[in-house]
TrEMBL record:
<dbReference type="GO" id="GO:0003725">
    <property type="term" value="F:double-stranded RNA binding"/>
</dbReference>
<dbReference type="GO" id="GO:0003697">
    <property type="term" value="F:single-stranded DNA binding"/>
</dbReference>
<keyword id="KW-0227">DNA damage</keyword>
<dbReference type="InterPro" id="IPR036265">
    <property type="entry name" value="HIT-like_sf"/>
</dbReference>
<dbReference type="InterPro" id="IPR032566">
    <property type="entry name" value="Znf-C2HE"/>
</dbReference>
<dbReference type="Pfam" id="PF11969">
    <property type="entry name" value="DcpS_C"/>
</dbReference>
<keyword id="KW-0238">DNA-binding</keyword>
<dbReference type="GO" id="GO:0046872">
    <property type="term" value="F:metal ion binding"/>
</dbReference>
<keyword id="KW-0539">Nucleus</keyword>
<dbReference type="GO" id="GO:1990165">
    <property type="term" value="F:single-strand break-containing DNA binding"/>
</dbReference>
<keyword id="KW-0234">DNA repair</keyword>
<dbReference type="InterPro" id="IPR011146">
    <property type="entry name" value="HIT-like"/>
</dbReference>
<dbReference type="GO" id="GO:0000012">
    <property type="term" value="P:single strand break repair"/>
</dbReference>
<feature type="domain" description="HIT">
    <location>
        <begin position="24"/>
        <end position="126"/>
    </location>
</feature>
<dbReference type="Pfam" id="PF16278">
    <property type="entry name" value="zf-C2HE"/>
</dbReference>
<keyword id="KW-0862">Zinc</keyword>
<protein>
    <submittedName>
        <fullName>Aprataxin</fullName>
    </submittedName>
</protein>
Length: 196
DNA sequence: GTTCTAGAAC
DNA sequence: GTTCTAGAAC
């Protein structure tokens, strides 16, 4: 290969720094990807979670540029109401499954998003204690709770780092019975007993 | 958010 | 020796 060819090869194969987008912007990409979209309305997009933590796991996002729950105020109550309607709609699509809807108290990904997830929590993508505790402790803010909070206080306040740390350190406990597994593999094995 | 992997836990 | 967890990623 000539020096010129080598240089062309290097510059074409190496990803340009400018094209690398931070992982926290991933949902904005998924919202534009037809393969990720489950359904869509004038104001909302529903996508399949890229790393589903249960057999059914959707994210409901507004098209409006709202970065997170911390940007919400009372002017958004009608939008939140639409999220609730979409939750109902998705439940109608999956009458065989037990679905819950809610928000993470500290989201990692940009763009306000509501999780709609089945209680089975049976998924190869569910791997860590943090995954588990983010859906099964009060780190998970149920839809109704967020709606009430917004109606009453006009905003959603950030939890402290100490509270965050404590919630993520909560000992493992089954979300469907009182079983307390010793570790994640044991929890995942146990969860199968509730679905099969 | 995930991936990778060192070293803790068993 | 193997399984499992938890912290760095420039």
């Amino acid at each position: 290969m000539s020096k010129r060819a080598m240089k062309n090869y290097e510059t074409s194969q190496r990803p340009a720094k400018e094209s690398k987008k931070h992982w926290s912007l991933g949902l904005l990409e998924s919202m534009k990807d037809p393969d990720s979209i489950y359904k869509e309305t004038d104001r909302l997009v529903v996508i399949r979670d890229k790393y589903p933590k249960a057999r059914i796991h959707y994210l409901v996002l507004p098209k409006e540029e709202i970065s997170s729950i911390f940007k919400l105020n009372k002017t958004h109550l009608d939008l939140i109401d639409e999220l609730g309607s979409m939750y109902k709609s998705i439940k109608n699509d999956h009458t065989e499954s037990d679905l819950v809807a809610g928000f993470h108290a500290i989201p990692s990904m940009q763009r306000l998003h509501m999780h709609v997830i089945s209680k089975d929590m049976d998924s190869k993508c569910l791997k860590t204690k943090i995954h588990w505790n983010s859906f099964t402790t009060s780190f998970f803010i149920p839809f109704d709770d967020l709606l009430k909070k917004l109606e009453q206080d006009g905003c959603i306040e950030r939890i402290s780092n100490e509270t965050h740390k404590a919630l993520m350190s909560t000992p493992l406990k089954c979300n469907q019975c009182s079983f307390e597994p010793k570790n994640m593999p044991q929890l995942k094995q146990h969860l199968l007993s509730h679905v099969k």
